[in-house]
Write a structure and sequence with these properties.
0% helix; mainly beta; 82 residues; 5-stranded antiparallel β-sheet; Thrombin, subunit H
């Protein structure tokens, strides 16, 4: 389950143990846009223990920024006085 996401990474809950430093690939969808993003596990901790499952919370740092979070560069225009 996705907890939080930004241009540079994501915080997720999962039943799979994530090993810090390992490579991961996430499929992220927004409206009609789909992106496959590679990254590395930055940290992982147990957040819930139930009789049938353990839930881990992991932080993923992306190798590249997600395009829909990156603000377009502002273009400076200059006007010459005549």
């Amino acid at each position: 389950m996705l907890i939080n996401i930004s241009a540079g990474g994501a915080l997720i809950d999962t039943t799979h143990r994530l090993l810090p430093g390992s490579s991961v690939e996430l499929l992220v969808e927004r409206n009609h846009y789909r992106a496959s993003v590679r990254g590395r596990v930055l940290r992982c901790a147990v957040v819930r223990v139930r009789p049938s499952a353990v839930c881990y919370r992991g932080a993923i740092g992306f190798d590249r920024c997600l395009p829909w979070f990156v603000e377009p560069e502002r273009v400076e225009t200059t006007h010459e006085m005549v």
